[in-house]
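User: My advisor asked me to double-check a structure prediction for F-box domain-containing protein before group meeting. I don't want to rely on an old file, so could you generate it fresh from this sequence?
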Amino acid sequence: MRGEEQWRGRGRGRGTEAKERKERREEEERRRRKDGEKEEEEKKTVAVMAEEEDRRINPFLANPKGPVIHNLCAAATMENRISFRKRLKLITDSTSSETSPASEKLITDSASSETSPTSSEVIASNVDLLSEILLRLPPKSLLRFMSVSKNWLDLISDSQFGSKHARRNRNRTVSGLFFYHHYWSRNEQVKSVSLLGQSSLPTPYFIECRRVRIVSSCNGLILCDIDCFIHNRKTTCYVVCNLTTQEFTRLPEHGDTQPPAYLAFDPSQSPHYKVVLYNYTPPSYQLDIYSSESKYWRHITVDALPVKRLEGVFWNGAIHWLSNDHHIRFDVGSEELIRIPNPIAPKILPVDKARYFGECDGHLILIQMRLRSAMGFRILQMEMDSFCWIVKCRVNLRPLISVFPEINNTSKDYKFHVLCAAKGVNKNELGLVLATAGKVIYYNLKGKTLKVLRDDFPKGNFHGLYFNQYHYTRTYQFIESLSPV
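Assistant: Sure, here is a fresh prediction for F-box domain-containing protein from the sequence you gave:
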């Protein structure tokens, strides 16, 4: 009888053990499913990041809306996504090997438990690692990711993160162009065109005032003058804004907004910017300089600038102007005005022959034409280290007439106008954004292909895009950026 009871006790013990083993298996299965769901979520996040990286690598994606003559690039390739995932893994491995003691303790404690953390949990718990990954994404994606969690919102909206992102991403792509025509009515002073296929661009009208006018743009920041009231007195003030983040800062009252104004900003060198006004106050010429670091205006007296049109370009730490005989630059750091005689070769034509003077991919670009009706020209390029002009290439746009025969019906002024020089999909290939016959097109110089960016601009001097030697319509570049203002 006692042996039977012992046998039954052992039977009950075996049944309990079997039940416990079954429960453990079910728990492990639930844990595996949970880990699988987390890994799937991580894959989706990486896929989103990879897609955004593809768009950053291939900026001139075809716009499905509107007429397109030739697409400048195909859709994002699988190689780009694989490359991004490899880089993401390298970042994870390298950063994990250099974790702080607190992070090492977190990982060790997690590893000692029944289940090790997934890579997404490691990234989420390591601010340095998460920041390193997010810094590689374009601004538009980061703004969308701010809604993921409060931690992501705090990280991405931090001014130090914005400055670091702008400093790390030196290859700044021109996302679009703004056009301002002083004949346009108040309600449509600013028109725009996207170079990336976006339906619209952000505008400075988030600044609540009656009038907003763009006067300068530089590396992601925009300088505007606005109507405002100070001490119950109506006046005009300068405002520096970031259209990507919809942030702005009103500068201290200056008192005069008639002089040409220039915004000088290079986030790869400094998070601070300067605003430079060139003013003639008889009997001297004066530069008024505002620094975002000091927060006040300074006044210095300089020699007269021998230029007919005060349309300067900020490049390589200085504001540059052209005259018939000299190349003038104002070093923003040292606040020194330097004149350099134009070279004998290549020949620099008189300044009224200049069709474009601007910056592109770290180079200063000059395009000149001898005749208004000319369809051919050469592109001059200045290198950073030499300050010497070289002939980059020669361009013949006459084949455009076969695609757009209405070019021959344009006014006697010019057949086309160069709005911007920009890099395409291949960073070694230069392209031009042109305005002609009511259209804005992108022309790839190497592939000799073109893409219509916009064709709904009305024709005419007062409502359309009207350009001539006096540049009634002015063009300003829009670059996505997280730079704080």
